[in-house]
Amino acid sequence: MSVTVDGDKSGSVPARLRKVLRGPRAEKVPALVGTACTFIGLIDIAAGVFPRFRASRFHDFVEVLPGTFGPLSAALSLSVGVLLLLLAHGLKRHKRRAWRAAVILLPVGAVAQFFYRHSAIGVLLSLVLLALLLRHRKEFSALPDPRSRWRALANFVLMGAGSILLGLVIVSAHPRTVIGSPSLSDRLEHVLLGLFGVEGPIGYGGSVSWTVGYSLGALGLLTAVTTIYLAFRPEHPVARLTEDDEARLRELLARHGSRDSLGHFALRRDKGVVFSPSGKAAVTYRVVSGVMLASGDPIGDVEAWPGAIERFMDEAKAHSWTPAVMGCSETGGQVWTRETGLDALELGDEAVVDVADFSLSGRAMRNVRQMVKRIERNGYETRVRRARDVSEAEMERIRQAAADWRGTDTERGFSMALGRIGDPGDGDAVIATAHKVDEDTETSPYGDLKAIIHFVPWGTDGMSLELMRRDRAADPGMNELLIVAALQASPQLGVKRVSLNFAMFRSALARGEKLGAGPVLRVWRGLLVFLSRWFQIESLYKFNAKFQPRWEPRFVVYRSTGDLPRIGFAAMQAEGFVNLSLPRPFRRRAARTARPCAHITPQTGEQGMRAA
Fold this sequence. Notes:
The strands form 2 sheets. Strands 3, 4, 5, 6, 7, 8, 9, 10, 11, 12, 13 and 14 form a 12-stranded mixed β-sheet that branches. This protein has a two-stranded antiparallel sheet with strand order 1-2. The protein is built from 18 helices and 14 strands. The two termini are about 30 Å apart. The chain is of the alpha+beta class and about 600 residues long. Helices cover about 45% and strands about 15% of the residues. About 45% of the residues are buried.
């Protein structure tokens, strides 16, 4: 397949590729500087805490200085060390603000090193790092990450806990000068009072009392100042789709939406978007923990994909974000790797059912057929409709039921979830519902509604599973019932293909259980089966296989192998399986513990992610 950049055949693709391939060399200086900053920060902290660490041949020099100059220098050295540790990660990520702060702090730390620890080597190390920062200042130009004032409270909690732990070390680092034998509770009380600048119950001989007092006060002041700064600095909001962005994406999907089953999920309103120069293609993304996560293939004309990909990579470089793509198709993976120099790894397979080939007859479908017949005999009926054909009153009941039946505090899904039902712009979505009249129908806020499936459009002749929810009191097998009902109703809806769940590592599970599988493959399958206790890898694959789908491979695109753990963790955050955000006031508690790592958990019908 020949791909041009928005019609440009001038050979600019190799130039972009060379620019990306220069990345590893460009990363060396910031990585070295960040590591050095961590090392010097630890030296500064050790110099301010441990008496033996600061002993030197120049120690007598301090005798001619004012009595409190040494303790003040210790507190200053300690504060600079803590701040340098906090800045090290930002320096590794090329952050401009981290560079500015380090340029100010290093000379201050060098002065504190000289007057308290009296170490010429410590001063020299700080000045060498300062010179390195000034020499390579152009490497540190990355813009700030998205942020909110919740960071202030998180900083207060983490810095407060760190200050208490470090304070206990400071209080206990002078055993020869402590008066008496204070208990752990006395030490903790001394630390807590010292953080507020109040003298505690522990007494020390000589000038150690001043040193401990100033150091604890410095930690408390540092916690307060950083928290106040984060609370009052301007917010840098996370990118969101604007109305204009959404309208442009819908136009692209109307022309090219049949290419990728995940295309409609680009309309999640908590994603950002970059368009190609011609506007004929786009890449949607979310930034999580410094990782710029795209999902699925680019939207729009394949010929314009390279332009959108270049804009995506430029945005990642401008902020020093780690670029990654979750769940792209084979064609998408080929374009991404060719245009950027990134690597691709097969993540699993998407289950796609061709409606014309689906039938409940035959031995392979016996279990599904028997389950569906049993549920129908129990009095359940199904309805499959376009969202625009559902009345507003019923749609409101569906929305409420979907929210109340969710098994987690937070909405799951990112790459293969839309996060809304019944939006006016999603009239082509398909909703399948299960109903049964029983003794609870009159009192239930959902009436006779027992289960829900929501599909989003996949072009003009397909649909893609978005979520499934059910009443916990309903009979088992609601998932199978509604999927079969949706497949049987598809011809009347003009649907020819249906995308179901994503099965991670499906090929390894399938090949590992076959006769003749090698020992490595069997061990790998055994590990996946073991992990399925928590992540339902095997059960989701077997659930998908019930419907005899064809399997379409999906890939993760990444920069280097070392980025994979970080990308995986960021993806888990984006999908809602790892929640580091602060709890919302009065958030509804989950009725039961969530079962992780599946867009649909077959046992409960909870929403999860269709791709890890």
